[in-house]
Design goal:
11% strand; two-stranded antiparallel sheet; alpha+beta
Length: 70
Amino acid sequence: MSGDDFRAVSYSFEDAGRATGYSKDIIARAVKAGDLTPRYPLVNGRQLTKPVIEHDELTRWVAAGRTERA
C-alpha cells in the first residue's frame, strides 16, 4: 500500500487539528464543549489515557458546521 492509499482511523488532538486546519487547542475546546467525542481505546482490557478522535467523528463535526459565516 502506498502512502496515498493510507487513511487514518483516528487522530491525536494535534493531528485532528492539522486534518481540519484548526489548532489542537480548538480541538480540545470542542471536546470540552461536548461537540467532539474522543475515544479511549483498550489494550489488554485496560483503557488508554490518551484520547483520540475517530475519523468519522471528525468528519461529522466539520459537516455539522454552517455553510456560511454567522
